[in-house]
Amino acid sequence: MSAQTLSALATIAIYAGLIGFVLYRQMRAQPLRGRRLVLLPAVLGLFAFQQLARQPLDGLGTAALLVLSLAVGAAAGLWRGTTFRLWDQQGAVYVKGSRMTLVAWAALIAARLPFAVVSYEAKLPQGLVIGELLLALAVTFAAQNAVVWMRAGRVAHPR
User: Fold this and answer.
1) C-alpha to C-alpha distance for 57 and 69, rounded to whole angstroms
2) d(C-alpha 123, C-alpha 9), whole Å
3) Amino acid 120: pLDDT
4) Percentage of the chain with pLDDT > 70?
5) Given a cut of 80, is residue 158 above it in pLDDT?
6) Rounded to whole angstroms, what are the CA distances from 90 to 62, 85, 149, 150?
7) Checking phi first, is residue 110 left (phi over 0); if not, alpha (psi -120 to 50) or beta?
8) CB contact at 8 A, 93 and 121
9) Mean pLDDT throughout 41-55?
10) Taking a C-beta distance cutoff of 8 angstroms, is the pair 52, 126 a contact?
11) Given 11, 29, 102, 140, which is the most exposed site by the fewest CB atoms within 10 A?
12) Distance CA 23, CA 1 (A)
């Protein structure tokens, strides 16, 4: 097995673990916290820019891949933000994912698979692949959280 294949398998295992953790968290009822809505996309974006800053971003293909990835992430996040259940519980807004949240995640994962295949086939540097994915995740969480925050304003005033 080649080093690139082993690296790809390790990356898949890490992503699967992260996806499981995110889905677990989003499917649990929890109070809505503004800081949490901003923190995850900001941290992901920071790590993404750190990765991308060290990579050669030459070529129209790489730029197109990044733009398309961001568009897919934003669209999925906007949709997913509409799928959460929100309610007021003793003056606090609570949020919990629904079955449609899982469907939206499945759609995003399916939409992300071609990016993984193209990156693998094009033998893009691992740092570029990780940076692109982290940036797409930052954008999808930012879009999702913006929709959730706007919807929460209609339920009550989140803390």
Assistant:
1) 14
2) 14
3) 80
4) 96
5) no
6) 49, 16, 18, 20
7) alpha
8) no
9) 92
10) no
11) 29
12) 31
Which residue type sits at 31? P
Q: Which of 134, 133, 126, 128 is nearest to 3 (CA)?
A: 126
For 87-145, the pLDDT digits (tens) are: 999 889 999 999 999 999 999 999 999 988 888 888 888 888 889 999 999 999 999 99
Q: What is the pTM of this model?
A: 0.87
What is the chain written as a DSSP string? Answer: --HHHHHHHHHHHHHHHHHHHHHHHHTS-EE--HHHHHHHHHHHHHHHHHHHHTS---SHHHHHHHHHHHHHHHHHHHHHHTTSEEEEETTEEEEE--HHHHHHHHHHHHHHHHHHHHHHHTT--HHHHHHHHHHHHHHHHHHHHHHHHHHHHHH----
User: Can you state the angle between helices 126-155 and 3-26, rounded to 10 degrees?
Assistant: 10
Residues with Cβ within 8 Å of residue 107, at least 6 apart in sequence: 76, 79
The CA distance from 88 to 90, in Å, is 6
Place of tokens 């898949």: 12
